[in-house]
TrEMBL record:
InterPro entries recorded: MFS, MFS_dom, MFS_trans_sf
Location, primary (coarse class): membrane
Protein name from the UniProt record: Arabinose efflux permease, MFS family
Pfam family, one: MFS_1
Record key words, sorted: Membrane, Transmembrane, Transmembrane helix
Major facilitator superfamily (MFS) profile domain boundaries: 221-416
Length: 416
């Protein structure tokens, strides 16, 4: 694993592009907390805060494939600059919106979400292009692992900003991070020479696997075998992740220690980071096996929550740490296979659909998990998390197997 990391870090321009790609996405995990607390101050209603946050998420998810298609067809650097300016302006408008105009919040949030900078799609297209074929699966696994750092740093930073300077300042900080990150990422991809869109006839770097075929004229990229099942599985995992988050919040709040929810979420994310780093070395289970382990990992948390068990923080934290180790490997496997089955020149659009299905999964899973929490308790919400992950196992089994390389000495990292 150290040798793999050393080789990645030696790749020209890769560390800079990767660092800026993470900074360009840091604001996403911080905006939810900052915006919710800011909007709640308008009307003293967390319901309205949820409506405004839902508007931002809806706009972001709905435009995900469109932003990806734009990246597939045009240089990514100018797109990052334009969307970064417009998105940060939208957040600033929400920050300075007078409380008397509270009813405009969802409209502005929806419009702002449409211009979320496509840093995620760009990173998942350009990073694999910068390394040899044999390292692409490792890059996707590392990408999934590094993503966990965002889920740790973003909320913590937002909470600190709210405590020090207030919710409005925290929203403005998120706007500034979105702008600075987008501009820096645009500069780095242009400097690395990967701003231009991928050629539709591009072949893998070392010729180990045939290039993906062009997307069908009817049905677009979703009609390519494997793309729709992978996007659906990603959304199903998103239902589970959101349900487990809500279960932890409810458990901590009911026992009078709401701060423990953040601590346990941090433990869960650290477990995922460890699992992703381990998976990045290569080998291990394939796509179906990793999604299966994620389903098992989520189910393993349920017995340690009410009403099955009172939920001792140390025991629950240990269960979450183990469960977390299955998350990033499963997500990394989905990234890897999607990058392989999606046609060259349409991969950013395919990754845009992941954003859409994840948003849809969260929107569907939140009310279901909430109803189960109210009626049966946190363990039932976690059971929902596990059940959707098990459906995801069945779905990814429909992803077609890839032809093995002619050179058997080339390792196939994403086998089924």
């Amino acid at each position: 694993m150290r040798a793999m990391l050393a080789e990645l870090l030696r790749t020209p321009r890769l560390p800079s592009v990767w660092a800026w790609s993470l900074l360009a996405r840091l604001h996403v995990t911080a905006t939810g907390i900052a915006l919710s607390l800011h909007v709640a101050g308008w009307t003293d209603s967390y319901l309205w805060a949820g409506v405004v946050s839902a508007g931002l998420a809806l706009g972001s998810g709905a435009a995900g494939p469109l932003r990806g298609r734009a990246v597939d067809r045009r240089p990514s650097a100018p797109i990052l600059v334009i969307t970064g300016v417009l998105y940060s302006a939208g957040l600033a408008a929400l920050a300075f919106l007078p409380p008397s105009l509270w009813w405009l919040g969802p409209v502005i949030a929806l419009a702002t979400g449409l211009f979320l900078p496509p840093a995620t799609q760009v990173s998942r297209v350009v990073l694999p292009r910068m390394v040899p074929e044999r390292l692409r699966a490792s890059v996707y696994s590392m990408e999934a692992a590094m993503q966990e750092l965002l889920f740790i740093a973003g909320p913590v930073g937002a909470a600190a900003a709210v405590s020090l300077s207030g919710a409005r300042a925290a929203v403005l900080l998120c706007a500034g991070m979105a702008l600075a990150g987008s501009l820096g990422f645009a500069w780095s991809v242009r400097r690395a020479g990967v701003s231009q869109p991928e050629r539709p006839d591009a072949d893998p770097a070392d010729g180990a696997r045939p290039a993906a075929s062009a997307a069908p004229r009817r049905g677009g990229v979703l009609a390519v075998p494997g793309v729709l099942p992978l996007a659906a599985a990603y959304g199903l995992l998103g239902v589970g992740f959101n349900a487990l988050d809500l279960a932890l919040v409810a458990w901590a709040r009911d026992r009078g220690t709401p701060g423990l929810a953040g601590v346990l979420a941090l433990v869960w994310a650290l477990g995922s980071l460890v699992g992703g780093l381990y998976a990045a070395r290569g080998g291990g289970p394939g796509l179906v096996g990793r999604v299966l382990l994620a389903a098992v990992g989520q189910l393993a948390v349920a017995p340690f929550l009410p009403p099955l068990m009172a939920g001792h923080p140390v025991v629950l934290g240990a269960a979450l740490l183990v469960s977390g180790t299955t998350i990033a490997p499963a997500i990394g496997a989905i990234y890897t296979r999607l990058g392989e089955v999606a046609p060259a020149g349409r991969r950013a659009e395919a990754f845009g659909w992941l954003s859409t299905t994840a948003t849809t999964g969260a929107a569907v899973g939140a009310p279901l998990a909430g109803a189960l929490l109210d009626g049966l308790g946190p363990a039932a919400a976690v059971a929902l998390a596990s059940s959707t992950a098990w459906v995801g196992v069945l779905v990814v089994r429909r992803v077609p197997k890839l032809p093995r390389p002619a050179d058997e000495s080339v390792r196939e990292d994403a086998r089924t």
